[in-house]
Amino acid sequence: MTLSTDGLPGWLDPVAHAATTIRGEQLSRFLPPEDGAGRQSAVLILFGEGERGPELLLMERAGSLRSHAGQPSFPGGALDPEDGDPRTEGPLRAALREAWEETGLDPSGVQLFGALPKLYIPVSGFVVSPVLGWWRVPTPVAAVDPAETARVFTVPVADLTDPANRATTIHPSGHKGPAFLVESALVWGFTAGVIDRLLHFAGWERPWDRAKTVPLDWRS
Fold first, then answer.
1. Structurally, what CATH architecture does the domain formed by 10-156 represent?
2. What EC class is this (predicted)?
């Protein structure tokens, strides 16, 4: 399994370029432990084209899960032995497999075109490989297992870049991070951090009010 930028739509060129130049410390302050600790995993950052132009595929994790319950996220999960070498094709296979298992996505319609540096999620101990994909042939998606996935949805990139939908969240620990209020969801944490940096390095970011804060229990 290999990465290919052949035939990508022109609007994805900035993202493909960013994937070849961006460094881990430019994406997050949480990088994989030097001692190799952490569970290898991968997420699929899937760009498609909908009625309102470019869009991203996201899902909302079930509220009953042990880690990151109820959070919007990219499809993804831990690598399995059959995925292969975690240093090469393993994350690519895992990202597609997990997306299929969680959303019913047909992997044959996805073109993988890039991979971002590995990042770390301290709260769950995952070492995450973000894999970039182009939804070349869209197929129906939905929550496959309600015990794992509450819903699957797409978000127009135009909504993610709209300053009105952007805010800062403050975790109980005091950590501040970017957030997006889109599709009746508050996207925050790891997922929002990666989206925020991708928008920035792709040149799509629009000035927004970083002083605007939203509580994590924003629905209450």
1. Alpha-Beta Complex (3.90)
2. hydrolase
